[in-house]
């Protein structure tokens, strides 16, 4: 797999600390996926809501080390060489082979990381302290 930094776009969220968050909650109800992230020494929360979810996975950050770039940015849209391309190469995931408008995102946390396949852009809200 190629270097992650060259295959993804940062998703900027204003009003939050410049550090790696902790993923504190993941809620899925078959129509949406809601992720809560928090930052050390900041009392706010960031909520990321994904709609049109086709799949997701939560893994230890060490198992997704190929997604970390030197800049340590925590929220990215994967363009190429991510989990979706990996699934396309393996051949067992039919949706990845047949649907072109499927998006992939990654949330990189201190302990856990989340990959998401979805058909819509995520909505981000910030709850400031």
Give the structure's gist in a few sentences.
The protein is mainly beta. 10% of the residues lie in helices and 42% in strands.
Describe the structure.
The structure is a single chain. This protein is mostly beta strands. The protein has one domain. It has two helices and nine strands; from the N terminus they run ββββββααβββ. The protein has a five-stranded antiparallel sheet with strand order 1-6-7-8-5, with no helix packed on it. It has a four-stranded antiparallel sheet with strand order 2-3-4-9, with no helix packed on it.
Number of helices in the DSSP assignment: 2
Largest sheet: 5 strands, antiparallel
Derived from helix and strand composition plus strand pairing, the structural class reads: mainly beta
Strand elements, count: 9
The helix/strand series, from N terminus to C terminus, equals: EEEEEEHHEEE
Pick out the low-confidence regions.
1-6
Domain count: 1
How are the strands of the biggest sheet laid out side by side? Answer: 1-6-7-8-5
- The helicity comes to 10-25%
CA radius of gyration is 14 Å
């Amino acid at each position: 797999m190629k270097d992650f930094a060259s295959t993804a776009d940062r998703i900027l969220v204003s009003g939050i600390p410049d550090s790696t968050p902790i993923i504190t909650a993941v809620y899925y109800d078959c129509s949406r996926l809601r992720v809560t992230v928090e930052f050390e020494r900041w009392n706010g929360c960031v909520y990321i809501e994904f709609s049109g979810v086709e799949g997701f996975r939560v893994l230890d950050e060490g198992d997704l080390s190929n997604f970390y770039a030197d800049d340590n940015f925590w929220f990215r849209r994967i363009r190429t060489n991510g989990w979706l391309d990996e699934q396309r190469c393996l051949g067992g995931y039919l949706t990845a082979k047949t649907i072109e408008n499927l998006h992939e995102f990654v949330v990189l946390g201190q302990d856990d990381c989340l990959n998401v396949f979805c058909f819509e852009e995520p909505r981000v809200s910030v709850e400031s302290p």
